[in-house]
From TrEMBL:
Gene designation: Mettl25
PANTHER family: CGI-41 METHYLTRANSFERASE, METHYLTRANSFERASE-LIKE PROTEIN 25-RELATED
Signal peptide: none
InterPro entries recorded: Methyltranfer_dom, METTL25, SAM-dependent_MTases_sf
Taxonomic classification: Eukaryota, Metazoa, Chordata, Craniata, Vertebrata
Species of provenance: Pygoscelis papua (Gentoo penguin)
Protein's name in the database: MET25 protein
Gene3D superfamilies: Vaccinia Virus protein VP39
Transmembrane spans: none
Length: 527
C-alpha cells in the first residue's frame, strides 16, 4: 500500500517522527526484500550445465580472509562465464595489487591483463607475483601427495565407475565437438528458469569413449605438470632457478649439465611465449573513452571484470563493455559510491559530460540526484553493525567537532585536502586536531590547547545524538545502494546488444559489505 509509510515523516516539517516505520520502509526497499537479484547458484548452474568447478590453490595462503573470500568466489564465476563464452582473455579493471588477476591466471589458466591507474599498485603486483613464484615447488610437492591419495581412492572406485560410464557410452551417441558455436543448444531458461537468461546457451553433450577412459587413468602425471605450470607461468620463466640432480665439484658445471640447463631454459621461454595463462599488470587511467586496443596490443575476444572498482570506474566499465565488440561479458563489483560524479548534483547542464550517476535514461529523464551525503551513507555496512561491529562513534565525533573548529576559527567551509586516517594515529583529541590542521595546511599555532578542549566539552553531550543519527544512516544505506545498482542494471537493460544482465550477490556482506555484482553477457550474434 502506498500509504503504509506515509507517517514516517511529518507532512509539514518533513522531520522524522516514526523511527519504527522508517526502519520497516528501509527494509522494504532493500535488496533482501525486492527480489531483483539472481541467486549465484542459479547463474553458475546455468553457465556450467553438468560441469563442476575446479579446486586447487588456496587463496588464504596469500591474502587476508576478506580478500581471499572475494577472490575465490568471484574467480569461480569469472571462469564459468569465460568458458561459457569460449574466451581465454580477461581484462581486470582497477586491478590494484593483482589479487584477482593472478588467481585467475594461476587457477584457471586465463590470460589476464590487470589495468590500474597507480604505478605503485602495478609495481606491487609485479613484486607480489615474483614472490608467489617461490612457492611453486611447495605446490608441486603438495600436488604429488594429493595425487597419491587420489590414486588410492580411484583404485577402489574405478571398477564401478568404469562400468557405469561404459554403460552410459553404449546408450548415448558420441559428440566430441565441444566448441561454443557447434555445441547442441538449449535455452538457459530451461536449465534455470529463475535465472532470467533469455538467449540460447551451450550444453556439454560430449561423452568419453572407452579409449578416453583408459587415457584418463594414465594422465595423472601430466595433470600434475599442468597444475605446476599454471603457477609457474604467472611469472617470467627465468624467475625460477632450474635445479639438477647431478653435483659438480668446485661449483663448476659439466658439459652435460650445462646442456640440460640450457635446454630447460629454452623450453621454459618457449612455454612462456606460447602459453596464454599469463598475468600482465599494466598502468593506465581508464575512462569511458579509453581505446583498449591502445592499452592492450593483442586485444581479442574477452570479458571485463572489476573487483571493487572505485567511484565512476564501475560505471565506465559498463560503458566500455557495451561499446566494444571484443568484450563479450562483464562482471563488475563497485564501491566508493561517495566518489561518484552526479549529473544533477550541482544543477549543471553538461550533456557531453560522462557522469557516474545516473546512467540509465529513465533516471536521466527525471533529473534524479542522490547527493554526497546519501552516497556517503550508501557506503555504510548494515550487516556488520547487525552482528555487533559498531560504528566508530568517537572518530566520527572527532571529525564532526573538527569541522566546527575549521569553520568557526579559520572560516574554511570547503577544502580539496583530506584528513584521512588521522584518528588511529592520534593519542588525544588535541593531538587529532593539530595533526589534522597540518594535513589541511592550516596554522595551528593560533589555536591553544584550551580552546580545542573547550570545543570538545561543548559538544561532548551530543555524542549519543550523533550515534543515533549515524545508525539511521546505516539503516537507510541499503536503499541508496539499491538505487545506484539498479540504475546500472537499467542502463544495461536499455542496450540492444545484451543477451542477459542481472544483479548477483557474490559475497558474505559481513566479510565484504560491497557484495553485489553487475553481470551481463552479449547476444551470440555479437560473438
Amino acid at each position: 500500500d502506498d500509504d503504509t509509510f506515509s507517517n514516517v515523516f511529518c507532512e509539514n516539517s518533513k522531520k522524522l517522527i516514526n523511527v519504527h516505520l522508517f526502519a520497516l520502509a528501509a527494509k522494504y526497499y532493500s535488496f533482501s526484500n525486492l527480489g531483483v537479484c539472481t541467486p549465484l547458484e542459479d547463474v553458475l548452474e546455468a553457465l556450467r550445465g553438468d560441469n563442476q568447478g575446479k579446486t586447487g590453490i588456496k587463496t588464504d595462503e596469500f591474502m587476508n580472509n576478506k580478500k581471499s573470500h572475494e577472490v575465490q568466489v568471484m574467480s569461480e564465476l569469472v571462469d564459468s562465464i569465460a568458458n561459457y563464452c569460449g574466451i581465454k582473455q580477461v581484462i581486470d579493471i582497477g586491478s590494484g595489487k593483482g589479487y584477482l588477476s593472478s588467481f585467475l591466471s594461476m587457477q584457471y589458466n586465463l590470460k589476464v591483463y590487470g589495468i590500474d591507474s597507480s604505478n605503485t599498485n602495478t609495481n606491487g603486483a609485479h613484486e607480489r607475483n615474483r614472490k608467489l613464484k617461490k612457492h611453486w615447488r611447495a605446490y608441486q610437492s603438495r600436488g604429488r601427495a594429493n595425487l597419491k591419495s587420489q590414486r588410492l581412492e580411484k583404485a577402489n572406485d574405478r571398477p564401478v565407475e568404469s562400468e557405469i560410464k561404459c554403460k552410459a557410452i553404449g546408450e548415448k551417441p558420441l559428440n566430441n565437438d565441444s566448441s561454443l558455436q557447434s555445441q547442441d543448444q538449449v535455452t538457459i531458461q530451461d536449465l534455470v528458469p529463475s535465472c532470467g537468461f533469455t538467449e540460447v546457451a551451450t550444453s556439454e553433450t560430449s561423452k568419453q569413449t572407452e579409449v578416453d577412459l583408459v587415457t584418463r587413468t594414465q594422465s595423472d602425471e601430466s595433470k600434475l605438470s599442468e597444475e605446476v605450470l599454471a603457477i609457474l607461468n604467472v611469472l617470467p620463466a627465468d624467475a625460477v632457478e632450474v635445479s639438477s640432480s647431478s653435483q659438480c665439484s668446485c661449483g663448476e658445471l659439466c658439459e652435460e649439465e650445462r646442456a640440460q640447463r640450457k635446454m630447460a631454459s629454452l623450453k621454459a621461454k618457449a612455454s612462456k611465449s606460447s602459453e596464454s595463462n599469463l598475468y600482465f599488470p599494466l598502468t593506465s587511467c581508464i575512462t569511458a573513452e579509453t581505446e583498449l586496443s591502445d592499452v592492450i596490443t593483442d586485444l581479442e575476444d574477452c570479458m571485463m571484470v572489476g573487483l571493487h572498482t572505485c567511484g565512476d570506474l564501475a560505471a565506465n566499465t559498463l560503458r566500455i563493455f557495451t561499446a566494444k565488440p571484443e568484450i563479450k561479458a562483464v562482471c563488475s563489483v563497485g564501491c566508493c559510491y561517495h566518489l561518484l560524479s552526479e549529473q544533477f548534483e550541482n544543477q549543471e547542464d553538461c550533456p557531453e559530460e560522462v557522469w557516474g550517476f545516473p546512467m540509465c535514461q529513465y533516471l536521466k529523464d527525471k533529473g534524479w540526484c542522490c547527493g554526497r551525503n546519501a552516497r556517503m551513507s550508501a557506503c555504510l555496512a548494515l550487516e556488520r553493525v547487525a552482528v555487533g561491529q559498531m560504528l566508530p562513534t568517537e572518530s566520527l565525533f572527532y571529525r564532526a567537532v573538527l569541522q566546527v573548529i575549521i569553520e568557526e576559527i579559520y572560516g574554511v567551509t570547503k577544502s580539496d585536502r583530506h584528513v584521512g586516517k588521522t584518528f588511529s594515529k592520534s593519542s588525544s583529541f588535541i593531538d587529532y586536531v593539530r595533526k589534522s590542521l597540518k594535513k589541511l595546511e592550516l596554522d595551528d599555532s593560533k589555536l591553544p590547547d584550551s580552546c580545542i578542549m573547550d570545543y570538545h566539552e561543548k559538544y561532548k553531550h551530543r555524542m549519543n545524538e550523533l550515534e543515533a543519527f549515524n545508525m539511521l544512516k546505516v539503516v537507510l544505506a541499503p536503499c541508496i545502494e539499491v538505487l545506484i545498482l539498479l540504475d546500472r542494471l537499467c542502463y544495461l537493460k536499455e542496450q540492444d546488444n545484451i543477451a542477459w544482465s542481472g544483479l548477483v550477490k557474490l559475497f558474505d556482506p559481513v566479510k565484504s559489505p560491497r557484495c553485489y555484482a553487475v553481470i551481463a553477457l552479449k547476444k551470440q550474434s555479437c560473438f
